[in-house]
Amino acid sequence: MSKEITPRTTDYSQWYNDLVLKGGLADYSAVRGCMVIKPYGFALWENMRDRMDRMFKDTGHVNAYFPLFVPRTFLEKEEGHAEGFAKECAVVTHYRLKADPGRKGALIVDPESKLEEELIIRPTSETVIWNAYRDWIRSYRDLPLLINQWANVVRWEMRTRLFLRTTEFLWQEGHTAHATAEEAVEETRRMLDVYADFVENEMALPVIKGVKTANERFAGAVDTYCIEALMQDGKALQAGTSHFLGQNFSKAFDVKFLNRENRLEHVWATSWGTSTRLIGALVMAHGDDNGLVMPPRIAPLQVVIVPIHKGDEQKALIDAKVHALMSELRAMGISVKYDDSDNARPGWKFAEHELKGVPVRIALGARDLQNSVAEVARRDTGEKASVSLDGLASHVRNLLDEIQANLLHRARAYRDAHITRVDTWDEFKKVLEEKGGFVSAHWDGTGETEERIKEETKATIRCIPLDNPAEDGACIFSGKPSRERVLFAIAY
Amino acid sequence: MSKEITPRTTDYSQWYNDLVLKGGLADYSAVRGCMVIKPYGFALWENMRDRMDRMFKDTGHVNAYFPLFVPRTFLEKEEGHAEGFAKECAVVTHYRLKADPGRKGALIVDPESKLEEELIIRPTSETVIWNAYRDWIRSYRDLPLLINQWANVVRWEMRTRLFLRTTEFLWQEGHTAHATAEEAVEETRRMLDVYADFVENEMALPVIKGVKTANERFAGAVDTYCIEALMQDGKALQAGTSHFLGQNFSKAFDVKFLNRENRLEHVWATSWGTSTRLIGALVMAHGDDNGLVMPPRIAPLQVVIVPIHKGDEQKALIDAKVHALMSELRAMGISVKYDDSDNARPGWKFAEHELKGVPVRIALGARDLQNSVAEVARRDTGEKASVSLDGLASHVRNLLDEIQANLLHRARAYRDAHITRVDTWDEFKKVLEEKGGFVSAHWDGTGETEERIKEETKATIRCIPLDNPAEDGACIFSGKPSRERVLFAIAY
Description:
homodimer, BirA Bifunctional Protein, domain 2, Translation Initiation Factor IF3
């Protein structure tokens, strides 16, 4: 069973699908646009989730769980929010099936079970959560309320891609309530930093922190902050967003609190989210033509050991050495698997572990044992080295750190080489077409210009970077004056 | 803000609701039959989930995630399954809303977005998962397949109760595939043991392991095994089920494998599940008229410390001692909170921590400090003791173990005292009416008798215990011969 991977240069999109499907991360399902997250992909998600969850708790948040269903009239309450999500909602209209009198064994929707008010499968939970907060918040003493939820959500997308854009996906959504606008903005920025920290340091993926333009804002937000990453095909990917919601939802759901001066005020809100989409980003940022490349810190499996032997006697000697090594590695908190199944040859196993992106592979043969060495291969560079068995566990631990650092370094070098400053419309188009990546350019600040640029080039403003220097210039499209550059890109 | 708890003897049902709502575990939501799991309740669920998850992984299972949606025709494929679930299905029929032309700001279902085939929100995932397994299983080498999923499910219940029976609930569902019937039965029994181990040793709730009668079997199962617990009002509660599914689903979804003899065979299946319903069981099994009582091993918070002081000087001395104690406790893996907020008096705090069921409360006052002691109160018995500060952390650690053991002991004593052997119909009815609990009685083995007994008394056969001795007797209802006793009870 060979698992051929389409090279990136041949068909980048097919290469991505090959990695996801053949790497065992996910599979298509029988339901349009929905995927199955397979055990290897889910183990990756568990590692990502657990680390993020720890970071959320360390910044004072607690988890809760709110209903899957959003009553239709809830969605209507915040106008911008309704406009943003109404067109992609899965709608529950009935609550019962019954036997089809015409076809034996078949079921039909029971028309008598029609709901008085339709229920939407949550595309996000602001409405349901702010409806609950109305009962939970009385005074400033109840604030801040710092709640996160891990959940599935549904957005009826017309064009779907495994992990990147699926009808149902898994995510976390933080929903916090504050006494002042300043505090809420601070929280919005804090969670953006948490996301950037996670994506850069755990996923080895460098990001640019910025704020969205009005056109690209979350439906119902006053300000949307984001982290933007760059994929190997030069397209950008939004890796996480954090929204300052002002008093939009507290007004829509009438959530007020008694402030320290004993006056009733509407509560200030934030929401922030990341999703299984991050797995798509990880695949596209680090993968190569041999398969997935997992960053060691979140890899489902960090080290695999393959024995190379003839006969049981050699195998027994190797086994003894391997079991001692595994104990040492596990004591260091490193996950390791001994792949000594006898239904595949070492070469096949090597290819399989490469495909799955296991950061470090150790091969141990009878002659190696005599020489007290093992062959250690690193997935990121493909380099192999003969390493002394003495101190091998420490060597592996350091190597995992080195691989993690190298992946980030490599992705950052690529990203930095793909931020291009341009000052003319021709340059702008040329860079987008020939080089891709982020294009740093002046923009006149209007939604109309932004829309026109998108129509002509497919590029959108990914963000206005947070650390943007002031710089006078002229809009590449309209020529009108501009006070700072923004980052354009074609995006996933 | 006083939080009065209705005593059990006054209104058991209201007592339960008071504990769930005022104890901060959950809240009603705007959607009929759906609840919000509040942070304190969710922290409890996280502890339960993490421990079960560890036990599943230790028995060789991995997690995955399958779609929320079940195509209507999937449900039709296994007849018994369809009959069991068709009447309580939330049905998605459309995928878009649009502006209501008649009412500004209002939304209506867009009739043009009608789905060709309706989608059911999963009430359980056998159909979706076995449809996927068809592509995943080729030969005996792919077996066993041992997969678990943590997910939300929806069953449209007419009468709902917080945690015990909600339209949407959280659960885990294991779905395994095997090469032989024997292996599948072994797996079914293994997971029943895992459930019993978890519920008894972590939740301190004794259970009876047994097998269901045909009437009470899971829709689509060959055999349903269960663990049954007893609540303080004498009603039984099914705490977990493990099903041997035979080849029902592999036949319905045409899942075959090449066996060692190179012949195609249908795969053998199991499924097993536990849910947030367990939280309802925990509340009802251990709670008292002062509130919740959390078993230490899964308590969201194990120890709370309350300072009793006048003025900042005393407070500073107490603080120093408390911080040292907290470090010691945390080093032992014990969760502890210092409740030194100054917006409530100690008495109010004591009541609040009792309501929340925190296993151990430590009060430390200025005079205590002089005497080098603290007041330690245990939630299970209400006993208070003056304990030397020297070695206090070890004392607390032992006390937590003692409380865990005592809760199990107490619940077991109650349960054992409420298993009543009866031999006549009059006795049977009298015990059910006056004493409650499990009634051990002879039954003629027919579904008709079982149904009649249920109609007349509301009691169902909870299970045929696994360790049941053979015993000749006469059915309490029909007088026909019987070879063993079964356990009846009125159940949640």
